[in-house]
Amino acid sequence: MKEKISIGILGLGTVGSGVVKVLKNHDEVEIKKIAVKDITKKRNIDGLNKSMLTDNPQTIVEDTDIQVVIEVIGGINPAFDLIKTAIKNKKHIVTANKELVAKHGAELFELAKKNNVTILYEAAVAGGIPIIMPLKLSLGANNISKIAGILNGTTNYILTKMDTEGREFEDVLKEAQDLGYAEADPSGDVKGFDAAYKIAILSSIAFDKKVDVNNVYIGGIDNITSTDISFAKEFGYKIKLVAIGQMANDNKIDVRVHPMLVPKTHLLYGVDDVVNAVMVEGDAVGKVMFSGPGAGDLPTASSVVGDLLCIVGDLLLDNTPIPLMRCKQRNGAKHLEIDNTRNKYFIRVNAKNVPGVLGDLGTICGNNNINLYNIVQKGVLEDGSARVVLLTEAALEKDLNKAIEEMNKKESINKVQNIIRVMD
Ligand code: HSE
To answer: Which of 35, 214, 303, 359 is found 20 to 30 A from 382 (Cα to Cα)?
Structure first.
């Protein structure tokens, strides 16, 4: 029996540093090489030996001693090519790269199958929260009907601050950037792409169909205002960026990311700040929720090293890592187009302060099969216009779009200012 497994790490940023720190406590793993951009950069990482560093990642993916490669560079290039070379050289892969798994997972899993190696990627979704293995293994007995999650910590932090402090999006985003929570280019987070990669990955596993991330409907939080949040609060909701994957009719799946009003009664309502959470509904288990840190060096390293130790444990016994852990992505999913989804809506309108305007709104909704649940006018603004908020019952998105078009053309209505979907 072997005593140690040699590994290589591609990348030594936040997650890579966390992995080195956590691996200090695991004698069965020897870090042989770590690929970095700048070998001369000063680094103060507990457990790091400078002789491990190389600025040539190719030497890792081609090293015959190395049995497992950890990829924590992120992005498509050069991670994709490096992983492919590593697989062809019969190395098992652990990656935290959500974009790569979402966009090229199928190709990588196929290549891994051919080469009889495993790719594990627990850290790619929701950082430190174990969700991939539970979905693949522990919940394997269930037909999963729905996954709903808060999968992006940056946007959850911004929306929580807007809610608790009554501040505007731009102001909180700037503070989050100054504190290092949000990236200098925040678009991947605030426009919803990061969460879209994650829900595409989870849906592929849960529904056993390859979900193409290009078919995921994506909406960001950059048009949410403190006015929307305070109205939502008054009605008993918080606004959150929610990622959903659910089975629809005709064997189609409905996968999307966009802001939603979350009611007090929902499990996701209390998930605030940078915390992530994933709720899964299965026919046997009912509803289960996983929550915890969705980012950060040590939480993400917890998932990376957990995957690594699964592989290492088997390699030490001279076994191939358990085939069950491998990803089997079957045929591609048929997607339900967003126009054909049914949702409840929050609609904020700026209208003229004239007799009959509430009637106009009600009539337009009625003519488009939209049943109103609540309609509120909050006085008159300084410029003489009226602020009106409508909450609807579930309606077809294409009917809603027609109603909005008619509202925007109506003489008594200045503009529909925001439309946000509402969770049940
Ligand atoms: N940027 C992500 C977030 C973490 O804010 O949750 C990594 O996916």
So the answer is: 359
Atom of ligand 1 lying closest to residue 98 CA: 8
Helices and strands per DSSP (H, E), number in the chain: 13, 18
Domain over 340-422 is classified CATH 3.30.200.100: no
pTM comes to 0.96
Is 87 in contact with 108 (CB distance < 8 Å)? Answer: yes
Name the CATH architecture for the domain at 132-293: 2-Layer Sandwich (3.30)
Residue of 14, 154, 221 to test ligand 1 pocket, by largest number of atoms within 8 Å of CB: 154
C-alpha to C-alpha distance for 346 and 286, rounded to whole angstroms? 28
- CATH architecture for segment(s) 5-128+297-325: 3-Layer(aba) Sandwich (3.40)
Q: What are the 10-residue block averages of pLDDT along the chain, 424 residues in total?
A: 90 96 96 97 93 98 98 97 98 97 94 93 97 94 97 97 97 91 90 98 94 96 97 96 96 97 97 97 98 95 97 88 66 93 98 96 98 92 95 98 98 98 96
Q: Are 72 and 16 in contact (CB under 8 A)?
A: yes
The secondary structure of 22-68 as a DSSP string is HHTT-TTEEEEEEE-S-TTS----TT--GGGEES-THHHHT-SS--E
- Give domain limits for the chain: 5-128+297-325, 132-293, 340-422
Residue pair 256/338 in contact by the 8 Å Cβ criterion: yes
